Amino acid sequence: xxxxxxxxxxxxxxxxxxxxxxxxxxxxxxxxxxxxxxxxxxxxxxxxxxxxxxxxxxxxxxxxxxxxxxxxxxxxxxxxxxxxxxxxxxxxxxxxxxxxxxxxxxxxxxxxxxxxxxxxxxxxxxxxxxxxxxxxxxxxxxxxxxxxxxxxxxxxxxxxxxxxxxxxxxxxxxxxxxxxxxxxxxxxxxxxxxxxxxxxxxxxxxxxxxxxxxxxxxxxxxxxxxxxxxxxxxxxxxxxxxxxxxxxxxxxxxxxxxxxxxxxxxxxxxxxxxxxxxxxxxxxxxxxxxxxxxxxxxxxxxxxxxxxxxxxxx
Length: 314
Ligand SMILES: Cc1cc2nc3c(=O)[nH]c(=O)nc-3n(C[C@H](O)[C@H](O)[C@H](O)COP(=O)(O)O)c2cc1C
Description:
By secondary structure, the protein is of the alpha/beta class. It folds into two domains: 2-231, TIM Barrel (Alpha-Beta Barrel), CATH 3.20.20.70; 238-309. Helix content is 46%, strand content 11%. The chain has 14 helices and nine strands. The chain has a nine-stranded parallel sheet with strand order 3-2-1-9-8-7-6-5-4. The relative contact order is 0.11. Residues 6-11, 33-34, 64, 91, 93, 132, 161, 192-195, 216-219 line the site of flavin mononucleotide (FMN).
C-alpha cells in the first residue's frame, strides 16, 4: 500500500516536503501543489521552485499541473520530462471558481470530450500520467463518462477525492460511490479524502481491502505520525516526537529565512504552517492564537517558545 502526501497549495510546498522527509518520514510519494501556466506563457518563480531541483532532490516527487488545452498539457509534459521527472499528475479536482470557470480542475469534468481531445492530441506518453480528480463539478455522475474516456488511454492511475467541486470541502468523502466506480474500471484507483486518524484508515481498508494507494492530506498536517500509524511502525516517545516537531519547525523557519527577505515575508509563510501544526499541542488554540497575533519576528519567536513549553498530544 502506497501512502502519499496530497498536494495542498500554501502548505505542502518544497520547504515543507523537504523538512518532513528529513525530520519525520513515512511518506512514499509526494505531490506538488498544482503548477499553472500564466497568460504570458511563463511559470511563476515560486512554481518553478516546486519542481526545479534547486534544493529538493526527492525522487518520489510527482509534479502536478492544471491544463485545459492541448497546448498547456504539452507544455507541462515537455517541461517535466526535460527536468527528468518520470511521472506527472493532471489536476481535475480543483474546485475554485476562478479555475473551474476556465474549464480547468474540476471545471473540466462535465466535458469528457475536451479531456479526450487533450489525451489524444497532447499526451505523448514520455512520462507516466496519473490524474487526481473529484467526482464532478455539479453532479457526481459526471465522473462516469470521464472514466470511460480514461479507460481508453495509457494512464497509470487515477486518484479520486470523492466529492463534487461545488461542495468544496463540505460534507464527507463519498466512499460508497467510490466503491461503485471501481466496478468495471481497468486501472488502479487511489483514494483521497478525510483520512485523519488510524480508525479512519482502518474502516477504509476494511471496505477496500485491495486498495493500493491512499493519499493523505490535512490528516498528516495535523498528525505527522499518521503515515507511521497506518504502516504499523512504532511511534516514538512523546519526548522524541516533541524534538522532531521542534526540528521540523526550525528547518522550515530557517529554509524560508534563507531565501525570503524581511520579517513580513517570513511571517507570511510560517504563520499558515501553524494552522495545522498547532494541532500537535494540547493547548492547540492558545498556541495558534499566540502565533497568529505575533507582530514581528521577536514576538513570533516568543510565541514559538511558549508553544514548545506546552505538552504535545499523546
Ligand atoms: C488549502 C488546500 C489546498 C489544496 N491544494 C490542492 C492542490 O494544489 N492540488 C490538488 O490536487 N488538491 C489540492 N487540495 C485538495 C487536497 O489535495 C485533498 O484532495 C483534499 O484536502 C482532501 O483530502 P484530505 O481530506 O486528506 O485533506 C487542496 C486542499 C486544501 C485544503
